[in-house]
């Protein structure tokens, strides 16, 4: 038999390696920003076009590269960070594997301009598909500029798997925010399609958080600070009343590297136990500093997952530290044994003996000998009594009429003693009988279907009605969320929302859909933005569909909510008037039918 194992060509091997490192434009942004930070840059500029599909460019003022380094950096596993295997467990930099630029150059057209000195003489290299097209000397200031153009130009199949520009842009913004939050001392700027998204000046951590998430974030922050032999923790959590449904404002950094850790996230959640409602998430920005030899950051290609040497201890410290801070700043309820100074005895009375108050009684006082009784008799005249009696009779007549009307109204619904009687089971399912058996209806999923079709019809055909707010409501959002609100403003207005102003980090709502109440506005908008962030389709109709689904999910009756018999019947009637009553807007079954034959089988009938 002939040999079947063979070495892959270099260009194929490079494209396979790129699949791990370069998953989407945001992956390129992350790698280039981290390289700029490792070059000791104090100012970094990010420029993207068409969500990074056309151009991703990072310009920094770091120490640059020599001619030899500029050529060698595109070779696989060429790195200045590690020289022996032990160095992998003593890392103080971002990139270290030497795969990033080689992988990017395998699937894009790359222009590198760099200069290591102050003499304005730099190097320019152009590469396509790991092939060097040319290299020349140019005039360039100290630092580096890397422009990645036409990502996946040589792998059309990979390019087809990219999401819409809105989704890819949001992934890039997420990566940019993570890097910028990890390094508040560095100046960052971000431009998309020639418009400025962020311009972050150097400062402290609190200033950087406020610059990214908006000015009103400042009043929400609670400082966290703790130093132990195992870990040093600093950063901020937000006050419990500002907890949100979404998780995208939860940041863990270990040695200035962003990580994802469900285990440590649980430590934060447990610290907020009984302080926030179920289903809500605390916002936090926590920076952990641990010895480099106590962690392993090589367990995942994107380096966002880390193994800790003593994870349980770090969990306990994080939980205790947050609880302490919430109590220290009077956020969490605490037992205060300190006395109130206002209850102390004044100094001038300190040595005086207490005296018993005297009680004086008037023996001649008799309340029944006063003229009050006569005055009351004077007011109760017969005529007045007659008038009150007539008013009372009118009220009785009106009440009888209203009772008759209400009894007449109930005939619109099924009588409880009728054959179509409904039952609510565990405040979750509604059961009603049909000729062929029994129907189990999931009240939340069924109501989602009802509301979804109502919203979709109002948005696309009728136009939703709005109710004016007596006082306009201000709601703060991050800059990226404000940008998204501006994009979908017209669609939100079709849903019934009316905006007075949309500022840099705040929106002013003056009108809301008639189907919601004022207290729900913030929660509904947050949920809506979260749903749209997860997947924004290209067509406007599909985006309206996402909005209708999100609003229906937010406003539908919840599992555990009690429904009266009339409400149960009304929900059933409306469900079976829907165009597609059998499934929720998200494709889950809204009801299940069990036939009598199936029930009989359980009794061997």
Overview of this protein structure:
The chain is of the alpha+beta class and 605 residues long. 36% of the residues lie in helices and 22% in strands. The strands form five sheets. The chain has an eight-stranded mixed β-sheet. It starts with 9 loop residues before the first helix and ends with a helix. The chain has helices at 10-21, 25-38, 67-72, 100-106, 156-160, 165-182, 205-213, 262-271, 311-328, 372-379, 382-410, 443-462, 479-487, 489-495, 521-534, 540-555, 565-575, 596-602, and strands at residues 43-49, 55-60, 109-115, 121-128, 131-139, 143-149, 187-192, 195-200, 221-227, 232-238, 250-254, 257-259, 284-289, 295-296, 307-308, 422-425, 429-434, 437-442, 466-476, 498-502, 506-513, 591-595. It has three domains: 10-200, Heat Shock Protein 90; 205-328, 2-Layer Sandwich (Ribosomal Protein S5, domain 2), CATH 3.30.230.10; 429-591, MutL, C-terminal domain, regulatory subdomain (Ribosomal Protein S8, Chain: A, domain 1, 2-Layer Sandwich). It contains 18 helices and 22 strands.
Give the N-terminus to C-terminus distance in angstroms.
65 Å
Summarize the amount of helix as a percent range.
25-40%
What would the principal axes of the Cα set say about the shape? globular
By DSSP, the count of extended strands is: 22
Which strand-content bin applies to the residues? 15-25%
- Main sheet attributes: strand count, strand direction, barrel closure: 8 strands, mixed
Question: How confident overall, as mean pLDDT?
Answer: 79
What is the SS-derived class?
A: alpha+beta
Largest beta sheet: strand ordering: 5-4-3-6-2-1-7-8
